[in-house]
Amino acid sequence: GRTAILDALQPLEELHKRQDGGNDDDDDNEAVIIGGTGAMYVMAKLPDGMDDQELANDLVEKYGVAIIPGSFCGYPGWIRVCYSNLPPEECVIAAGRLKDGIRHLCGGVDDDKK
User: Fold this and answer.
1) N or C: fewer beta carbons within 10 Å in the chain?
2) Do the domain assignments include residue 114?
């Protein structure tokens, strides 16, 4: 479950690198994805200017996957993705939807999803 979710969030790391002009020298050392290996969720930082509540609503409505806006947990501009209580096969399906949604909604990679 965790591996599939981390893969689904990879486009956010790519978007942050683009925002930083491709600079790998992360001067502020701020992680884009946080969450220990023992946790049942991860937090992911959205690109600058992205509304976490709007993204959460769009992911549910357009991709059928639910996440928690970080602002509900005291982290505006982040999302919280919980992967507990999901059978592995359902987690892989949800992770695929999440990845597609992030790519499309965050301006990463266009797809045919409407």
Assistant:
1) C
2) no
Q: Which of 114, 111, 86 is nearest to 100 (CA)?
A: 111
Given CA atoms 48, 19, 54, 93 in this order, what sign does their dihedral have? negative
Q: What pTM, to 2 d.p., does this model score?
A: 0.79
**For residue 60, which amino acid is it?**
V
Domain span including residue 64 = 2-105
Residue 112 belongs to a domain: no
Assign residue 25 the CATH number of its domain.
3.90.1150.10
The answer to whether the Cα torsion of 102, 107, 109, 113 is positive or negative is: positive
How many domains are contained in the chain?
1
User: Which of 43, 50, 51, 48 is CA-nearest to residue 21?
Assistant: 48
Q: Is residue 33 part of a domain?
A: yes
Count of other CB atoms within 10 angstroms of residue 67: 20
The two tokens of residue 99 are 């990845």
User: What residues in the chain have per-residue pLDDT under 70?
Assistant: 20-29, 36, 108-114
